[in-house]
Structures are given as structure tokens and as C-alpha cells.
Design a protein that fits this description.
single chain; alpha/beta; Spore Coat Polysaccharide Biosynthesis Protein SpsA, Chain A; nine-stranded mixed sheet; two-stranded antiparallel ribbon; 40% helix
Length: 307
């Protein structure tokens, strides 16, 4: 089995980041020196992917432009002898092929995946959600591809999450544990309550699925929220007798789907970046000192005002 294509659903409106995302797609918000979605594409390239199938809406033209050649900018960089910047600018457009398909109506993640059906054909395909950024020695998607190739089945990435966060995720029920990090999936449930959750293993933003997912999604009805859920399609595959595995991927995951988590990801990555780490550490230490001084002054003022 060879996986050469991934679907990246990027048609959401980014409502949690408004008004910042009124004109700028959420996927183009910066993580340090590059947009969020570029980290996802770079992970795909390191996993052996060549074709990136982007599901977008009519307001995502800037996303398409980012991965396209920019002759005017390239000429300016050449004139200014910015060879390093020029190389970085061209690296992705030369290494990957990008295909775009529009999701005209926001009918959910499952519906977005269906939009790319005609570009996939009869082969296993990767799915990478751009909110999730993974950092590690072995790319998260590459880990799934390896398992899918060995087991000749569909594989979804999972991570253990605290019980009080379980309702934010799709969650797996385990049929059989194959190894410390590999499980055969009995069922998947979208955003269960704590009492409904069959485990604390949450599905996190990376999949390698067989082409059967498209037929299963075709069978799905639009749910109560007006959406077709990818988890419902995976559950249908399981009920049809298809084997689906879950793999606990190694590496650090950063969730950039909310403003607070996006801010945390920027700080965490800056602390690991050779160019920014020392200055960021110094800045955070200064903040700590300022906070302690402010707290001390507040306590002092509180004592003076106490009768």
C-alpha cells in the first residue's frame, strides 16, 4: 500500500477567531514565521506525500496564493540577494502539487471529505486537520502510514485526554489491544459525555482511510447540527465489517483551534526555536518578575486599606 495523497479540509469560517478571521483564513494565522497550514503541508512532505487536496470555500483565495509561485516577490529577493528567503519561498511549491476543491455549503467535516472524492480514486488517502500541529522525530502521518501498510487497514490517530475534556472529541471504543500503542476499534462516538465515553482515547486530526470511507459517507444523513460527521462514516465502515485501527502517535501535539491554544502553541514553539528561544525565555522571566512585583504591591495596598 502506498499513500501519496492527503485531504486537508480548510473550508471553515474560523468563527472562534473573529474578527481576526474576517479577511484572513484561520489556517493562515502565523505560528512564529509561517502560517499554521504550512506546518501541516511540511509534515505531509516528510511523510512521503506529493499531492495535497485542499477543500476550501470562496473566501480562501489567499491560501491558494500562499502555495503558488510569486514571480514578482522572487525577483525582488533575487535583486536583494536574499537567497535563503528565496529558497524557503520556493521549497513547497516545487516539492508538492496542490489541488483545490470548493465546499459550497458548510455541511461538516464528513461532507468536506466527500468533496475530494473524485481526486482520490480507489486508494487509501491521508486526512490532515489543519488545527492540529504535531512535532516529533517521526511525523504523525508517517506513523499512521506505516501501520496502515503493515496491517492493510484504515488507521486513525488517538491520544489520551483528561475525562473533563472528552466531550470535545471523537472517542474510540476498543475491541482489542494489539500492542502498547495500537488498538482495533470497536466503535467511534462523536463528542460523548463523560458517562457515554467508551474510553479516554480521543481522535486527533490525522487519519489514513481506505476508499470505502466515501461510500460510507454517502450513506450518512445530515445530523441535528446540519452536518455530516467523519466519525459517523468511520463507524459505518466498522459496521460493514471493515477493520479500523487506532494508533497512539508519538510526538507533541499543539491544538491551534482556539485563540488561547494558538497563543500557547506560539509560545511553546518559540521556546524551542534556535532563533527565538533565548529571547523568549528572557521575556517570560521578565513577565514573571513583573507579576510577582504586581502581586506584592497588591498585597501591600490591601494591608494599608484594611481597617
Amino acid at each position: 500500500m502506498v499513500v501519496t495523497k492527503v485531504i486537508i479540509p480548510a473550508a471553515g469560517i474560523g468563527s472562534r477567531f473573529l474578527p481576526a478571521t474576517k479577511a484572513i483564513p484561520k489556517e493562515m494565522l502565523p505560528l512564529l514565521d509561517r502560517p499554521v497550514i504550512q506546518y501541516v503541508v511540511e509534515e505531509g512532505l516528510r511523510s512521503g506525500i506529493k499531492d495535497f487536496l485542499m477543500v476550501v470555500n470562496r473566501s480562501k483565495k489567499v491560501l491558494e496564493d500562499h502555495f503558488d509561485a510569486a514571480p514578482d516577490l522572487e525577483e525582488i529577493l533575487k535583486q536583494r540577494e536574499k537567497s535563503e528567503s528565496l529558497e524557503a519561498l520556493n521549497r513547497l511549491s516545487e516539492a508538492a502539487r496542490f489541488f483545490y476543491v470548493r465546499q459550497a455549503h458548510p455541511l461538516g467535516l464528513g461532507h468536506a471529505i466527500l468533496m475530494a472524492r473524485h481526486l482520490v480514486g480507489k486508494e487509501h488517502v491521508g486526512i490532515m486537520l489543519p488545527d492540529d500541529i504535531f512535532m516529533g522525530q517521526i511525523p504523525a502521518l508517517a506513523q499512521l502510514i506505516k501501520v496502515a501498510t503493515q496491517e492493510r487497514c484504515s488507521v486513525i490517530a488517538v491520544q489520551e485526554v483528561p475525562n473533563n475534556q472528552i466531550s470535545r472529541y471523537g472517542v474510540i471504543g476498543i475491541k482489542k489491544q494489539i500492542s502498547a500503542n495500537l488498538f482495533q476499534v470497536r466503535e467511534v462516538i462523536e463528542k460523548p459525555t463523560q458517562s457515554q465515553a467508551p474510553s479516554n482515547y480521543a481522535i486527533i486530526g490525522r487519519y489514513v482511510l481506505s476508499p470505502s470511507i466515501f461510500a460510507s459517507l454517502d450513506e450518512m444523513n445530515i445530523g441535528a447540527l446540519g452536518e455530516v460527521q467523519l466519525t459517523d462514516g468511520i463507524q459505518h465502515m466498522i459496521l460493514q465489517g471493515e477493520k479500523v485501527f487506532a494508533y497512539k502517535v508519538s510526538g507533541i501535539r499543539y491544538d491551534t483551534g482556539t485563540p488561547l491554544e494558538w497563543l500557547k502553541a506560539n509560545v511553546a514553539l518559540a521556546l524551542k526555536h534556535p532563533q527565538f528561544a533565548d529571547q523568549m525565555t528572557e521575556y517570560l522571566n521578565e513577565l514573571d518578575r513583573d507579576l510577582l512585583l504586581m502581586q506584592g504591591r497588591a498585597e501591600f495596598l490591601g494591608k494599608r486599606m484594611t481597617p
